[in-house]
Amino acid sequence: MKRPNPFKFRLYVAGDAPNSAQALANLRTLCRVHLPDRHQIEVVDVFREPKRALADRVFLTPTLVKLAPGATQIIVGTLSHTQTVLWALGLETLAP
Amino acid sequence: MKSVSSPVVKATAKAPTGIAGFDDITGGGLPCGRTTLLVGGPGSGKTILALQFLVHGAQACKEPGIFVAFEEASKRIEANAESFGWKLDELRRRKKLFFVDAQPVPDRVQSGDFDLGGMLAALEAQAREMGARRIVFDALNIVLALLPDAAAKRREIYRLHEWLLARELTGLITLQAGGDEAGAGSQKPFGFMQFMVDCAVILNHSVVQGVSQRNLRVQKYRGSSFDEDEAPFLIGKSGLEVAVARTPGRVDAKVSHERVSSGVERLDTMLGGGYYRGASVLITGSPGTAKTTLSGAFAEAACRRGERTLFVSFDSEYTEVIRNLASVGIQLNPYMKNGCLHMIPARTITGSAEIYLWRIKTLAKEHGARCLVIDPVYTWSKSGNEATAHSVVERLIDWSKADGITLLCTSLLDEMSGRTEGGSPLQISALADTWIHLNHLVQAGERNRGMSIIKSRGTAHSNQVRELILSDAGVTLTDTYTAGGEVLMGTLRWQKESADRVADEVDEVAEKLKRVRLDAEEAELEVRVKSLQVELEAKQAEKALLVRTMESRAGDLSRDRTRMGELRGADAAIPEPK
């Protein structure tokens, strides 16, 4: 069942650098567990789209930007601390 | 774009910063294609130096640059740099300069490891597009502070360094020091960076005796010699200006044989024609010995020749100086009006000796000054660090000489009395070409001004003390007298002069009398000669008469005798019987 307010994510990665690869894996796991069927993930590889990183002022990789719902939220890092990420996304109540 | 053939050549290649003194210290600028670390406390001028380096590269070296701002928004940096006249806007439009706002987003959440890979990828694209050769990372410590531990910091510093080297960009990384990250632990990555980079520069902003002092020091420079001393600098109208004590190959380039008048005729004579053009003249003396007056006379003479002159007055308002000088016949007002003379009250300048020098240099340049008066120069020694002030005076002399400006400084010497004549407070007496000393001589209840030339390079000057007299007719120098080993001045000199004058008159009269007497004697003799002449003539006449009488008598006698014989019929053959 699809909720009316899906989570839109944009993840900036630096190619397949370890931190970036880990962040992407962590994000996918988190979405599968906590936001099934209510998320969209856009991956921006700054190696391929450097101008975009510059324009979006993304200098640290990996950087996750939550575009919706609500206010934009930026999370930097491999997203390894799930609790922190959930809290930042306002999903802490969903935590097990 | 700079074409560099091989990395080996690059080790010695320099990227000029356009900051004159700094390029002197480093032998040409920052190491080309290498990384330089610029460390300094808050407000020490890191950002300005970094930006100036980029601006110069973009404007003068065909080396476009990127400025990565971690601390301040680039808009603010640009606005702050507006006053330097660097035309950042135009450089940005021509894609010679690119600003990257890289301040960390304040409400960002951190979860797990991250790195600078994204930034470097973005910068790489930008650098390639604009052909950038220079890049500045301003306040890198801010981004390093985001990293969780020392290992991560090191890893990212290393990543950045490798990235710079691989792209052969001339990198300048600035780091804040002395602020809140004073803790030993957080200093570690900086220390590591100092070892890693090829060049490290430290900026220091301190307050010495209430006066702001900025100093710069090159800590290391791989593969190049450099000046290891601390050099004072200031942030001037067009950016950083680093003061180098002695510019190599300076001075003495323009040695002039031309003389310029001191404004006092007699002094010119004593100096063999005046001061040399481009010389530095020092006038010392205690308060009230007419130092300012001699300065004014010099300025007036310069303006009369039509030479633009700058007069820096430290002690009093220049309007007062003008009024006071007018009382001794030195008229500066007309030259103020026609713009030949520019007088500035130095009270309007505040700050260190560096600031003074810079202001004076700028003003002299703007005015096109050929003659410069600083009255007095000793005030500088009060401006913070005396050692720095000394080097400032040294540079003032070097600079004026190199520019062919004739410099006249006055200095107080009263604190020196009792000591040797060795030096004025700033030891400029050793540096000055001509040193004139004024003193007071108290004698017979009077205070008079004495003037002597202590030295004057390249001139056979008079060694005598002269009395300096100020009157509404101007400044005059007069001979002094010595009596019993003492120099006479003022009334005593006047008395001596009067006495001499009387003695002269007596002598003159005596001579006249003698001459008259001799004339009389001569006349008398002449009269006698005349009367004797007449007498002689009378005697001669008498004698002639006598001779004539005798002759006629002898003739008569012989005639009578003949007649008698005839009458007697005497035989001529028969002698007369007796």
Structural account:
- The complex is a heterodimer of chains A (96) and B (578).
- Chain A contains 3 helices and 4 strands, in the order E-H-E-H-E-E-H.
- In chain A, helix 1 links the parallel strand 1 and strand 2.
- Chain A is α+β, with helices and mostly antiparallel strands and 96 residues long.
- Helices cover 31% and strands 25% of the residues of chain A.
- In chain A, strands 2-1-3-4 form a 4-stranded mixed β-sheet.
- With 578 residues, chain B is an alpha/beta fold.
- Chain B is 41% helix and 24% strand.
- Chain B has 17 helices and 25 strands.
- In chain B, the strands form 5 sheets. In chain B, strands 5-4-7-8-3-9-10-11-12 form a 9-stranded mixed β-sheet, with helices on both faces. A 9-stranded mixed β-sheet of chain B has the order 17-16-18-19-15-20-21-22-23, sandwiched between helices. A two-stranded antiparallel ribbon of chain B has the order 1-2.
- In chain B, helix 8 runs parallel beside helix 9 and helix 14 packs parallel to helix 15.
- The longest helix of chain B has 79 residues.
- The termini of chain B are far apart.
- At the A-B interface, helix 1, helix 2, strand 4 and helix 3 of A face strand 6 and helix 6 of B.
